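Quick one, tokens below:
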């Protein structure tokens, strides 16, 4: 009843929605970089979004499943294969005992998310199963996967279900369910990442504000889950000043004295004292999370009201999708 790690991949760690509510204690939120893909993968296998998925970065692991289960893969296309054969993404799939899942060449994106029906058997730390790599807690022993790790599944599938159906019957039934993903939660691309002005927007020079919206920035090699450093035109304040540290959020764009912006990501620190020129709109954070070092990024402004409308629409779309996929959950719970 385990998942055995034959090869760990570049960086594979368990993540959920994050460790919310503990920033006043100095505990970072962390969680999935691409919350859209994480939530979609869980929805497809009948889980709620607070169940941890396996976040797979660039080079995927090789995993052996010792018992049947139902999985879904979403996010980056890293050429997933089951027993050497390509498999579909964004669908619930039945795996049999001793099946091996591995990954090949990167087609697009940076991070894939593997969810399994019932979830992985991981302890909770401060209300979350997310791995905080820097502090070494949460997830699987507070670290990325290593060769020969064995992680138990909470709800593997039986060979014969309560209704007498076999795994083959279940697999055919799941494949026969039509899936329609609204554009707001499907894999998508945009030419520009949308931003919301910060309270300090006017304190930056007009030339800097224009550069942020019209120039192209490159994500620095010195970027990771804590933050993306952007290489491009210097973003400068009209008068440099020191600030009292404030709480940070996913998508905050801080500007150190050197003028090169940093977009704070999932593993951000709890507070920061650098000036903030803008915030990445929540609806576009998944697009940014699927970029990596060397990728170019451009920005455009979005009003707070428009950003809230888009966020509400995405939440509504996920609720509707979960209701549409109720037959999937029923089939899996009966097996």
């Amino acid at each position: 009843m385990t998942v055995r790690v034959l090869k760990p991949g570049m960086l594979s760690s368990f993540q959920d929605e994050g460790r919310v509510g503990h920033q006043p204690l100095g505990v970072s939120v962390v969680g999935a970089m691409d919350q859209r893909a994480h939530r979609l993968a869980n929805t497809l296998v009948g889980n709620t979004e607070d169940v941890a998925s396996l976040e797979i970065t660039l080079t995927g692991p090789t995993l052996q499943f010792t018992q049947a289960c139902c999985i879904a893969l979403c996010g980056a296309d890293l050429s997933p294969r089951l027993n050497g054969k390509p498999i579909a993404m964004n669908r619930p799939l039945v795996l049999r005992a001793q099946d091996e899942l591995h990954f090949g060449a990167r087609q697009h994106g940076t991070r894939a998310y593997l969810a399994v029906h019932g979830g992985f058997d991981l302890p909770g730390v401060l209300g979350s199963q997310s791995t905080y790599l820097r502090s070494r807690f949460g997830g699987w022993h507070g670290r990325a996967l290593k060769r020969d790790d064995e992680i138990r599944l909470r709800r593997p599938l039986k060979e014969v279900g309560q209704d007498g159906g076999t795994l083959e019957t279940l697999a055919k039934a799941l494949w026969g369910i039509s899936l329609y993903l609204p554009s707001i939660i499907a894999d998508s691309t945009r030419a520009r990442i949308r931003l919301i002005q910060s309270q300090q927007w006017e304190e930056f020079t007009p030339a800097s504000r224009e550069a942020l919206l019209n120039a192209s920035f490159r994500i620095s090699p010195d970027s990771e889950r804590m933050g993306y450093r952007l290489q491009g035109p210097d973003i400068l304040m009209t008068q440099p000043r020191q600030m009292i540290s404030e709480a940070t959020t996913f998508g905050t764009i801080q500007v150190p004295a050197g003028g090169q912006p940093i977009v704070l990501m999932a593993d951000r620190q709890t507070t920061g004292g650098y000036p903030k020129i803008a915030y990445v709109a929540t609806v576009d954070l998944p697009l940014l999370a699927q970029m990596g070092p060397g990728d170019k990024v451009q920005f455009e402004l979005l009003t707070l009201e428009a950003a809230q409308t888009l966020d509400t629409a995405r939440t509504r779309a996920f609720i509707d999708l979960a209701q549409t996929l109720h037959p999937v959950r029923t089939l899996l719970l009966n097996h």
